[in-house]
Amino acid sequence: MDFKIALVPGDGIGPEVIEETIKVLNKIGEKYNHKFQFTTVLAGGAAIDAVGNCLPQDTIDVCKNSDAILLGAVGGWKWDTLPGDKRPERAILGLRKQLGLFANLRPALLFEELAEACPLKSEIIEGGLDIVVVRELTGGIYFGEKGFKDTELGRAAYDVEQYAEEEVRRIAVVAFDMAMKRNKRITSVDKANVLESSRLWRSVVNEVAKDYPDVELNHLYVDNAAMQMVRNPKQFDVIVTSNIFGDILSDEASMITGSIGMLPSASLAKGNFGLYEPVHGSAPDIAGQNQANPMAAILSAAMMLRYSFGLLKEADNIEKAIKSVLSQGYRTADIMSSGYKLIGTKEAGDRIISQL
Ligand code: NAD
C-alpha cells in the first residue's frame, strides 16, 4: 500500500531522530511491500529562521494532504527570547487546531529490559507496565473563557473548565475503541465529587460504555488516580481523561517508564489521521552530537503504522526490534547504566533496522 507522510523534523535533535525513523520506515516498506512517500516541511525555529513564521501555510497544506504527520521536536535556546505568540512551540498548537487533533494518546510502556530506570519498587512493576493515557486535547480549561476581574479581594483571574457532551463523547469513543484492541479495561478519571463539568463527563462516558458491553469501565477521582499510579500502576490499561487531568497524569505515567527518550505519542483527529511525535523536546543540550535516543521517535512511527495505517504486524515488528536491541545490552546515553554497551543515535537506528 502507498502512504503519504508529512515529515516535520523541526529543531535540535528533531532532525536526528527523524532521520533514523525514516531509515526504519524504509526498511519496513521494503520488507512488507509498502511505499512511504515522505514530504519534508518546516515548522518551529527552523521555519522562523527560513520564512519568519513558525507554522507556514505550506506546512499546513502539506500536512492536510498527507495520511499522517511525523514530527521530531520544535524549540530551542536560540528562540527563547521571542514573545510567547511568536515562539517555535506555537507550531504544535497551530497544527492541533488546524487539523482537529482532539485525542492525545500517550502510552507509558516500561520495557522489562529497562526496569532499573523505573523509580518504583521492583515488586510493583514486575513483568513490565503497559498503560495508555487518552487525553482530551482541544477543550476544557486550557481553551475555556479566561480573564481578569476586580473583586473585593483585589484583582482576580479565572479560567473556565467547560466540556460539551460531544467533546466528551468523541474522546470516550477513541478510548473505548482502544480498549477493545487491548485488554478491554478503561478507567475514566474526573473530579465528579466537586465539578459539574466532571459530572457531565462521567454521565457521557457511562452512555458511551453501553455501546461497548465487553469493556470493563471504572471511574476514579483524579487525586485517587494520581495516587494509584504510583501505588499500583498495573491496575490500569486505558485511562481516559480531560485536557488538564491528562496533562498531569500522562507525565506521571511516563515518569514511571524511566527515560523520556523512550516515550512516543499520537494526537488523533476524527477518522484515521494523526500527528505522531516523541514526547521529548528538542534537547538543545545534546543536539548535533549523535547522542539522542531515537527510540521515542521510532516508537511514534510504530504508533502511526498501527493507528493511522492499520499496519499492526509492521508496528509489532518495530516494537519487537527495539526490545531485541535493548535485550542485547545496547543503550543510548539517556538509558545507560554500568555493564551495558553505549551506542549513539545512528548506531541505535542501524541496530533496530538489523532486527527488523
Ligand atoms: P527536552 O525534552 O528537550 O529535554 C529534557 C532533557 O532530556 C534534556 O537533558 C535532554 O538532553 C534529555 N532528552 C530529551 N530527549 C532525549 C532523547 N531523545 N535522548 C536523550 N536525551 C533526551 O525538554 P526541555 O529541555 O524542557 O526543552 C527543550 C526545548 O524543547 C524547549 O525549547 C522546549 O520548549 C521544547 N519542547 C518541545 C516539545 C515538542 O516539540 N513537542 C516538547 C517539549 C519541549
Structural class: alpha/beta
CATH superfamily of the largest domain: Isopropylmalate Dehydrogenase
The total of helices stands at 12
At the third CATH level, what is the topology name of the largest domain? Isopropylmalate Dehydrogenase
What percent of the residues sit in helical stretches (DSSP H or I)? 25-40%
CATH class of the largest domain, anyone?
Answer: Alpha Beta
Q: Compute the average pLDDT.
A: 94
Integer-rounded radius of gyration: 20 Å
Ranges where pLDDT stays below 50 over 5 or more residues in a row are none
Number of domains: 2
Amount of beta strand = 15-25%
Strand order of the largest sheet: 2-1-3-12-11-4-5-10-8-9
Q: How would a textbook summarize the main sheet?
A: 10 strands, mixed
The second-level CATH architecture of the largest domain is 3-Layer(aba) Sandwich
Overview of the molecule:
By secondary structure, the protein is α/β, with parallel strands linked by helices. The chain has two domains: 1-104 and 257-356, Isopropylmalate Dehydrogenase, CATH 3.40.718.10; 119-256, Isopropylmalate Dehydrogenase (3-Layer(aba) Sandwich), CATH 3.40.718. 40% of the residues lie in helices and 22% in strands. It has twelve helices and 14 strands. The protein has helices at 14-32, 45-51, 57-64, 90-98, 122-125, 165-181, 196-209, 222-231, 243-256, 295-307, 312-327, 345-354, and strands spanning 2-10, 35-40, 68-73, 103-110, 129-136, 146-151, 154-159, 185-190, 216-221, 238-241, 264-268, 274-278, 330-331, 341-342. Helix 1 (14-32) packs across helix 10, helix 6 packs across helix 7 and helix 11 (312-327) packs across helix 12 (345-354). The model has no long low-confidence stretch (mean pLDDT 94). Bound molecules: nicotinamide-adenine-dinucleotide. Residues 13, 73-76, 89, 92, 260-261, 277, 280-286, 292-293, 296, 334 line the site of nicotinamide-adenine-dinucleotide (NAD). The site of nicotinamide-adenine-dinucleotide has 21 residues, from loops.
